[in-house]
Prior knowledge:
The chain is an alpha+beta fold. Among the domains are: 40-144, Conserved hypothetical protein from pyrococcus furiosus pfu- 392566-001, ParB domain; 151-246, Arc Repressor Mutant, subunit A (Orthogonal Bundle), CATH 1.10.10.
Amino acid sequence: MHTPPYPVSPTGKEAAGLLPLPNREFTMTNTITYTITYTTTEISLAKLVPSPANARRTGTGLGIEALAASIQAHGLLQSLVVRPALDGEGQATGKYEVAAGGRRLPALKLLAKRKRIGKGAAIPCRVLDGDGVDGAEASLAENVVRLDMHPADQFEAFAALHQNRTGLGIEGIAARFGVSAHTVRQRLRLAVVSPALVQAYRDAVLTLDHMAAFAVTEDQAAQERVHGQLQDWQRHPDAIRRLLTHALVPATDRRTLFVGLDAYTAAGGTVQRDLFSEDGGGWIVDTALLERLVAERMERETEAVRAEGWAWVASALAPRPGRGSAAGCGPARWRPPRRTTRAGRSLPAATTSWPSSTMAAATTCRKRSRPSWTGSRPSLPPWRPERTCGSPGTCRLPGRC
C-alpha cells in the first residue's frame, strides 16, 4: 500500500487512497461573478451646475462650512454623479448637472471662493449615460440607503484621533471637521464614560442625555455605582448629576463668588466642568483650598476696616447656605448715629457719646433696620448701625439675617 509522504487525518483517508471511495453523486456548480464598474471623469468645477433632479430639497444649505473644511482637510472622498446638461433642443451645452452631490458642490464652490482651490479645479465625477440609472434615481439611492454612524462610534473615533495623531490638538481636530472646539471637547468627554454604560447606550437602554449626565465626572467607577443605585424610573439626568457631584461645591456657591473663581484657579484649584449645561457651570474640587482662600480674604477685609480706626470689628461665616443676602455681607463696622433735633436737623457727631461696650453688643445686617442684641438691650436712644458689604461672599452674621 502506498504511504503518503505526509500525515493523514482520519477524515482524509479517503482522499489519500487508504480507503475505497463509496458511490457518490457529484453536482457541478457554476459561480457567476458580477463586477460593477463605472468610469470616473475629471470635470472642471466651473462646468458643474446644480441639477433639478436632485432628490434633496430640505436642508441643502446646512453644514456647508463643516463639509468644506472636511474636503479641504481630507479631500473629496466621494465623487459627484453628473449628467450632461441639455438645452431646449436637446443639445449638450458643455456643462454638467450634479444629480448626486448637491451639498458637495456648494462646499467646493465655497472653497474656490475662498481661494483654497482654483475655480477650474478638476473634480472627479461619474457621468451617467442615457441607458443607465437616471439622475433622480441616483440621487434618491445615495440618500436613502445611507446610514449615519452611531453617536457612540463617533465620539470614540474622535477620542482615538485625538490620542493617536501626534500634534493634532482639539483646535486642530475642530478645524479639520468644521466644528467648534467646544463640540470636540464634548465628544472627547463622552468618550470617558464607562464602556458598560456606552454599551447600554448602544442598546438603547440609555439616551444621549443620560450619557451627558454621567460625563460630569471621569470616574468610571462612580458612574457605574450611580447607575446601579438608580431604578429605571429614577434615571433622570438631573438625578445622575446630583449624585455624582453631591460632595463638591458648586461654582455658584457664595464662597466661590466671594473669593473669585479666577483666584481659586490661580491658587492651583481644579474646577470640574459640565460641558453639556447651558450655563457652563461646574464644581469646586478642592474644598479645603476654597476654605483657606475664604479665610484669607475675610482677614484682609477685616484688617482694611480695622485700619479705618474702629475699635471693634468681627466677621464670621454663615452657618448654612441661604442665610443673609444673596451675595453675602462683608465685615461689620459700626458707626455712631447722629442725633437729630425735633426739627429734623442733624447735630454734630461730637455731641453723641456711645459706650464702646454698647457698640460691641449690637450686631445687625443690612436686611434689617433694627439691631439684634447679644446681651441685655440698653435703654438708650434709637441708633442706626451701619454695615458695608464687600464683594460677593458669605454673610458675616450667623443666625442674624
